[in-house]
Amino acid sequence: MPAVLILGFALVVIVAAIALTPLMLVQRYRVGTARRRARVWLSTVNIAGMALSSALFVAGAAVASRWIPNALTQTLLAFAAGCLLGLVGLTLSRWEFAGGLLHYTPNRWLVLGITLLVTARLAFGFWRSWQVWGATPDYAAWAAAGAAASLAAGAVVLGHYLTYWLGVRRRLRQLRSGKR
Prior knowledge:
The protein is mainly alpha-helical. The protein has 2 domains: 1-32; 35-176, no CATH class. It contains 6 helices and 3 strands, in the order αβααββααα.
């Protein structure tokens, strides 16, 4: 009986997570476009988290490249593109200095583009999982076909946010040193 309850609870949690995904994506966009105060400690935590995530992600792509052709190459190229996108994001963000504090508002279109990229990656993952569910062994090659592109989409997001937070940290340092 306890196993049935645990299985039922797990199923409810999975269905709830899937059902709430659209709401989570809308909230991600709303929060991503809000005006925020730039804080040194927050940028430091985000840089550390993004650097660790990026290193682990690239290591995972390197391991996956054994089975997925071009996984590491596409991941590294997409990460570099994400870093360039982060520089564009820093340029397009609105920066405000008032009362000794720095505030920033990310560009809405760039946040929307990244949110749509994440949405497409999630949708592709669900679709691919559904297709592979009853797959035969010779079907596995087709199932892995989009994995490298899916990894690349994640690398773009990681590269963007790592570069963006490095730029926020740089702006804060410039502010502290008296340069604007």
